[in-house]
Design a protein that fits this description.
- It is built from six helices and 13 strands.
- The chain has 247 residues and is α/β, with parallel strands linked by helices.
- It has one domain: HUPs (Rossmann fold).
- The termini are far apart.
């Protein structure tokens, strides 16, 4: 079986967020970059677990980005990926990124394509569905479990008020979220092996971009806390009516 795992580079959740050039560009100064957690902890680790059950399985990685993505790709290889592809272009347009991933996937004849449910920077949650459409494969989103019996996958996904269980024949595209697997840490053997694993840089295929970033806005700063005496119920009621906001 061949598995393609889509990974992306995102800022660490502890990074201080700021913008430059009139709030049109993300300020990368001092930012620590990581593998998008949904891609690493759930998609990649579940693929590794499937390979542990069937050592004949091959895990390929794909990311769309410039050379500064190489460290996170090497980490993913250290965790257990066998080979990686980096499409050498930067874009924030989901359609453009999906086209690049689908182009790699079409050339690889994959049985399974894993994505994270979303990237933690832009939270688009759209790549998986578009890739599935471009590959003419079924798509299951927000998966929390994935079990394989031969060429049939049983996938549990979250829906409003409960869970939904799907059965689908491979090939299939699946977006993964919490519950799919548990986070792993690369060991020294994996780190050393990752240095020599293939990382192929591909030039992007020509396609249009459908969206562009106009500007960023930070959320308003949190207001100070107002303390009201337990004896002053009238003031509390006034504040709730006039100043309190439901978010």
């Amino acid at each position: 079986m061949k598995i393609l795992v889509c990974i992306s580079k995102t800022p660490d959740t502890t990074s201080k967020i700021a913008f430059t050039d009139g709030n049109t560009k993300f300020d990368e100064t001092g930012v620590q970059w990581i593998i998008n957690p949904y891609d690493e902890w759930y998609s990649l680790v579940r693929a590794i677990e499937l390979k542990e059950k069937d050592p004949a399985t091959t895990i390929h990685l794909v990311t769309v980005g410039a050379a500064d993505c190489d460290p996170i790709i090497r980490k993913a290889l250290a965790l257990g990926g066998d080979e990686a592809f980096r499409v050498n272009t930067n874009s924030t347009d989901s359609y453009y990124i999906a086209v690049q991933i689908a182009s790699v996937a079409k050339n690889g004849s994959y049985d399974l394509v894993f994505t994270g449910k979303e990237a933690i920077d832009y939270n688009g949650s759209s790549i998986g569905g578009m890739v599935a459409e471009m590959l003419d494969m079924p798509y299951v989103s927000l998966a929390t479990t994935f079990d394989l019996n031969g060429s049939t996958a049983t996938i549990t996904r979250e829906i409003e008020g409960g869970d939904e269980v799907n059965e689908v024949s491979l090939p299939v595209v699946v977006s993964c979220q919490k519950g799919m697997a548990e986070q792993r840490i690369p060991n020294m053997r994996g780190i050393m092996a990752a240095r020599t694993k293939p990382l192929q840089v591909l030039e992007p295929v020509a396609t249009e971009t459908l969206t562009q970033l106009v500007n960023f806005e930070l959320p308003p700063a949190k207001a100070g806390v107002k303390l009201v005496s337990p004896d002053n119920v009238g003031e509390l009621v006034r504040l709730l009516h006039e100043e309190a906001k439901v978010i």
